[in-house]
Design goal:
The complex is a heterodimer of chains A (419) and B (252). Chain A has 419 residues and is of the alpha/beta class. Chain A is built from 16 helices and ten strands. In chain A, the strands form three sheets. Chain A has a six-stranded parallel β-sheet. In chain A, strands 1-2 form a two-stranded antiparallel ribbon. Chain A has a two-stranded parallel ribbon with strand order 9-10. Chain A starts with a helix and ends with a helix. In chain A, 43% of the residues are buried. Chain B is α/β, with parallel strands linked by helices and 252 residues long. Chain B is 44% helix and 14% strand. In chain B, helix 2 packs across helix 4. Classes of the chains: A alpha/beta (419), B alpha/beta (252). At the A-B interface, helix 1, strand 1, strand 2, helix 2 and helix 12 of A face helix 4, strand 4, helix 5, helix 6 and helix 7 of B. Bound molecules: iron/sulfur cluster. Iron/sulfur cluster (SF4) binds next to loops of chain A.
């Protein structure tokens, strides 16, 4: 193997794949067969973090950055004048195995520019996964990026060897997609997703009857949306996410704040800041929908289509619903305790078990890990709580914001001048 | 005040706990021999001889009360090497004997129990980090070797993880601070305790010929997968505290 050539390809194809933000290796349970390599655990492992603070758990590369399409937001687009390279199937397999053996990664995340056509590309991706599983006995995690327009037969094969499949919606709205990726068609993105979703539910049914059914995309599907390349609002984005969670059983939706790297009059200018705070708020909302029992309509509504940049979505909800507070920690049900600002899932669970032993007070709550500076205004104890007098204060919101400083303060002031 | 001295082992500790009940000691402290310096010459010393039947009796009883996962938490407290570990474990056992029908480890309002829960959290965090930050380096003899130096004694907690994961390669994880390790030789996976410290001089010279290439590839990958426009070193440091950098190929 020519090491210098391989290094060059790796540099280019990792660089081009880095804007795909999904990294999770969770949700797979592929147990090692005796004497083989690899084992994926449910929670996944971040083996390191990039300097931008993102988790690295998979070798994330493109198979090639050759592409026949010309999507405005993508560095690999055909009109971009860059060096084009392609890995061989063997090279990707070799890198994956050798990185895995050294415990650098949990597995492979393989995506690709579209060369020739969708099926030729998809077929090559599947070949990598197949070789890893069948020839290398590899049981680590494999995430394949499906190619829009790929045939059902290839999707079927992909799902047999990969743990997770995804197709990036990229642009949340159809009109936005038309503008930035005119050759792409939303239906071509959605139909492979629908195929996989049917396959997964069929797998679940068959599994109930037969014990040995081959695994079918066991870690499910995910997708990614770029935020801030076009002009949609947060309500639209959350609604799309909610729709895909509900109708396609997606495991995750990723939100990727647009990084301006290309000059194009359809896109925000190169000097535009990456909308990190907005992206962060979207993840927080997503989290509320997946783990806190919030509905999309509770987080935003048409009269308020953007997420509050000053406070997180849970606090924002609480401020709009003060009539639901205070919540008595001794008697309230778990679901309501989860809605108290400053109390997370773990703390809520601890509260529910600790209160069986004794009446809780503020001190206990602090020790159980609640963010007291927020939580204290929204709760009640059997013995009362002196902070409750602020709850009805006209300036309550100001008081709360004054008490906490945002890590995005700098960016926040810039954003403020924009609106 | 009676001081119970035990040999520093898990079974020794639970033998000591058994004897606290057996001799109905009221005020006690349990200390491992290694850490004991006799300051109070009037202290009453009770030397514990490790007896597996005694420790098993305590552990079986505990298992009925707080389950296997409860025992596992006490094991983590033991491996934390926390100076309070014996007192915390003793207190948990005493409370469990008093309330056999409750899982007392959930009584987070009690200060010992909260202490246990905090220690478990720290140990878990480091256990998890060790599954992430161990970096194997392939040696000339084909063995994948990793050095670690964790704050807590987590090797026993990560053995199964690596054993499940790497079954077709020989590997070794060596705790530099505690001078012992795990070795997997394609058949068994066991602890080993070298007589002398392993000699790490000339270590790099014993690398397999391909090792430096893969390290280089990984380092380049690490740089190229970063998005410069989103640089956030504070977050980076929070996830990868500096004390772990010495393990990490991509940080060297
Ligand atoms: S099809 Fe994919 S790789 Fe090709 S330009 Fe569009 S986004 Fe980029």
């Amino acid at each position: 193997m020519n090491f210098d050539r391989l290094k060059e390809k790796l540099e280019i194809l990792a660089d081009a794949a880095k804007y795909d933000v999904s990294c999770s290796s969770s949700g797979g349970t592929r147990k090692n067969k005796k004497g083989a390599l690899g084992d994926s655990s449910v929670s996944g492992i971040c083996h390191t973090y990039t300097e931008d603070g993102r988790c690295v758990s998979l070798l994330k590369v493109l198979l090639t950055n050759h592409c026949i399409y010309d999507c405005a937001y993508c560095v690999s687009r055909s009109s971009n004048d860059i060096k084009r390279v392609a890995f061989t199937v063997e090279e990707v397999v070799d890198l994956t195995i050798n990185f895995y053996r050294r415990n650098y990664i949990e597995g492979l995340f393989l995506s690709s520019g579209i060369f020739k056509n969708a099926d030729t590309t998809m077929e090559r991706l599947v070949r990598v996964a197949k070789k890893l599983r069948l020839e290398e006995n590899f049981n680590g995690y494999i995430h394949l990026k499906s190619i829009p327009g790929a045939s059902d037969e290839l999707m079927q094969e992909a799902a047999l060897y990969a743990d997770r499949l995804s197709i990036n919606l990229e642009i949340p709205t159809e009109s936005g997609l038309k503008l930035l990726a005119p050759e792409k068609n939303r239906e071509d993105m959605i139909s492979p997703m629908r195929y996989i979703q049917h396959g997964i539910s069929q797998y679940k049914d068959e599994k109930k009857i037969f014990r040995k059914v081959p695994k079918f995309a066991p870690a499910g599907q995910s997708t990614q949306m770029i935020v801030g390349a076009t002009s949609e609002n947060d309500l639209q984005i959350i609604k799309v996410a909610d729709y895909f969670y509900k109708n396609f059983d997606l495991k995750r939706v990723y939100y990727s704040g647009y990084v301006p790297v290309l000059e194009d009059k359809r896109l925000p200018s190169l000097t535009t800041e990456v909308p990190m705070l907005r992206e962060n708020r979207l993840y927080q909302s997503d989290w509320l929908m997946r783990f806190y029992g919030f509905k999309a309509e509770e987080i935003l509504d048409p009269t308020m289509p953007f997420l509050d940049l000053e406070v997180d979505p849970k606090l924002s909800w609480a401020l709009r619903n003060l009539h639901q507070f205070p919540v008595n920690l001794q008697t309230a049900d778990y679901q309501m305790i989860l809605r108290i600002p400053g109390i997370g899932v773990k703390t809520a669970k601890k509260i529910v078990s600790a209160r069986r032993f004794q009446a809780l007070n503020m001190d206990h709550l602090k020790k159980l890990g609640a963010a007291i500076n927020r939580a204290k205004y929204f709760i009640d104890f059997n013995a009362g709580n002196m902070y409750l007098k602020y709850l009805t204060d006209k300036n309550f919101r100001k008081l709360l914001i004054g008490g906490s400083s945002s890590k995005f303060q700098n960016q926040f002031s810039q954003q403020l001048t924009l609106f | 005040m009676t001081t119970l001295l035990y040999d520093g082992s898990f079974d020794g500790l639970f033998t000591a706990v058994f004897e606290v009940f057996e001799y109905r000691y009221k005020e006690v402290e349990i200390i491992s021999k290694e850490r004991f310096y006799q300051e109070n010459i009037f202290a009453e010393i009770h030397e514990v001889v490790t007896q597996n039947e005694k420790s098993e009796r305590v552990l079986n009883k505990l298992e009925q009360n707080i389950g296997r996962s409860g025992i596992h938490q006490l094991l983590k407290v033991f491996l934390s090497e926390d100076p309070e570990l014996e007192q915390l474990i003793l207190s948990a056992v005493q409370q469990s004997v008093q309330h056999p029908n409750e899982n007392i480890l959930q009584n987070y309002a009690d200060s010992s129990i909260l202490g246990i829960s905090k220690i478990c959290k720290s140990v878990d965090r480091e256990r998890h980090r060790m599954t992430a930050f161990v970096r194997f380096e392939k040696m000339q003899d084909g063995v994948y070797f990793a050095k670690i130096d964790p704050d807590f004694n987590v090797l026993p907690l990560i053995l199964k993880h690596f054993k499940d994961r790497y079954q077709d390669q020989k590997w070794m994880i060596y705790d530099l601070r505690r001078n012992y390790g795990i070795l997997y030789n394609l058949e068994n996976c066991d602890f080993f305790y070298p007589e002398e410290k392993i000699d790490l001089n000339q270590y790099q010279n014993k690398f397999h010929e391909e090792e430096n290439n893969y390290q280089k590839l990984w380092q380049r990958y690490f740089i190229k997968t970063n998005i410069v426009e989103r640089k956030n070193l504070k977050l980076h440091m929070q996830h990868v505290p500096r004390r772990y950098w010495k393990y990490l190929t991509e940080k060297n």
